[in-house]
Amino acid sequence: MTPQSDEDEVWRQIVASFNDTAEHDSADQPWPDSENLSPEPTRRVVKPPEGPLMSGSFGDQLRDDELRDDELERRDDDDDDDEGHFQPPPPPPLPKLDLPTKLAWVALFGGPAYLLVAAVAGWHMEGWALFTAVAAFIGGFVALVVRMGDGPPNDSGWDDGAVV
């Protein structure tokens, strides 16, 4: 027999038994012992006595022990509430900008801002003011793109890992 004919025979058996019911229903099978869960441990709840306290130092000691147990139990309950809560660490501070970068950002937004304010206020704009505002926008954009750089970071080795 060839391997192809074996595969064909297995495939025919699978197709023929597609609508057959299982011999043993899975509900009839018992759980394996390894999947049985142990019952939860019982917690001891200590209630303060409602009657008069025992006199003497032994009664005071008993009362203090009960209060400590109650406090510990409340702390355990509080810890359970915060168990799934994630608080991310604070973000690192923003990097400090040097003077050329600050000037490039001011030029990038300052040129169009001046043109917008002048248009809304109805100011008469001279040719040199219009040219300066447009040149500031273009110069700020070019300065930021040039300072951005397109090479790999200097601190990485020969293998950057996955680059997206």
UniProtKB/TrEMBL annotation:
TM segment ranges: 103-122, 128-146
Annotated region (Disordered), positions in chain: 1-97
Q: Which UniProt keywords apply?
A: Membrane, Transmembrane, Transmembrane helix
| Segments of skewed composition (Basic and acidic residues) | 61-75
Q: Does the keyword Membrane apply?
A: yes
Q: What is this protein called?
A: Uncharacterized protein
> What is the scientific name of the source organism?
Nonomuraea maritima
